[in-house]
Amino acid sequence: MIAPRSGERPPLPEQDPFYRRPRGLTRVAPGTVLRSRPVELALLGRIPQRITATQLLFRSNDLHGRAEAAVTTVLLPAGADPAAARPVVSFQCAIDAVASKCLPSYAFRRGARALGSIPQFELVLIAQALTRGWAVSVPDHVGTAGRFGAPREPGHRTLDGLRATLGFLDRPIDSPVALWGYSGGGLATTWAAELAAAYAPELNILAAVLGSPVGDLESTFFRLNGSTFGGLATLCLAGLRRAYPALDRSLREHLDTDSLALLDRAETSATIPLLLRSLRFRVDDHDGSALATLRTRPEVRAVLSDLNPGECPPRFPVLAVQGVHDLIIPCGNVDRLVDRYRAAGVSVHYRRDILGGHVGLGLLAAPLCGDWLADRFAERPLPAGTTRTVPSVAFSLPALRGYLGLAALLLRAAAARPLPAPATLDEDRASIRPNRAALGDLAPTV
């Protein structure tokens, strides 16, 4: 593929031939790379970044197991040797939208007009992962159809994105990899972690970080509907009606005019603008029952009962992070998800943060999450799984060092300067050995 010229405004995915599903898709295995191209990245679409980025179109499956094409963006420090042995992390952004301009494959690009999309702000966190010497795969886990909230398929796209990334980097399929995501990205990471053993057993996933991973999407939706963050409920409903035609028909029949109009606006809006326009807006049905009646209809119950992970615990260690007083994701939902995992024998390290709000905790916990994954890659001993409720994950020297590093990275990004040099080659070699000793009986079967 020919690289686009500097300064060009990239077309939206629905207008971009790169995303187009090729013929014969069902004849190739999931994770097969179908197309690739280099792209330029820019902070907020404006400030060019010295990061090597390649987009891969690959075969995956939707929630019903039907073949589809999906995209991941593979990131390396500028000038890094793609063939060098290094750990790979799949970072699931908090896409939290149905509009294609919020997909990281578009929002990261130079010239992208995606103001208000959350992935643009997560690029600095991903850059910090690159400074550790890792390769990072960033999948469009909601898919080009924007089916935000749909079950299973975010896990398929994440896992197939890892397969495609390892193939592109010419790495063995059992190379050490890890999963990381927060909020909507945490939910996608949860699906990938749960589906890995059955869907992609050949992947050597050492660990997963589940940042505020939703836990129970139905209860979260009804908590948010009519709240300060009611726009998130609207965006989720807009994504689900794309995935479930019966739900779409029921919504069109029963929702009031204002609610349908907001769902239509959600089709093209970035996350933050829709949140600001819909403060305390309540998606409502004709009788004003805030969907209480609609919630009991068989076609709606069928969708709601299909949404929540937790039935297939991961087979590798997990770090979960959640705010105790989170106004978006109820802490109790994540508590129950952790309890289900532990009952199945999963080693879960759970940090409950008292002071951090939902948005702030995603940043505050980044050093903790990165350090924990680095320990897994480096085969450091895995402590027994515990639950700790702390005033703040920010109150530690490692966290302070991490924030200083993030601040330095932000300054570099704003000045379009290259990332600092990653770990040395010897350190890289030490960090990529499979963490079999630490994983014990929870290691995935290859």
UniProtKB/TrEMBL annotation:
* GO MF terms held by the record: triacylglycerol lipase activity
A Pfam match is LIP
Q: Name one GO biological process term.
A: lipid catabolic process
InterPro entries listed in its UniProt record: AB_hydrolase_fold, Lipase_secreted
Region annotation (Disordered) ranges:
1-21
| Family annotation (SUPFAM superfamilies) | alpha/beta-Hydrolases (SSF53474)
**This chain belongs to which protein, by name?**
Lipase
Q: Which organism is it from?
A: Nocardia terrae
Ranked from the top, the taxonomy reads:
Bacteria, Bacillati, Actinomycetota, Actinomycetes, Mycobacteriales
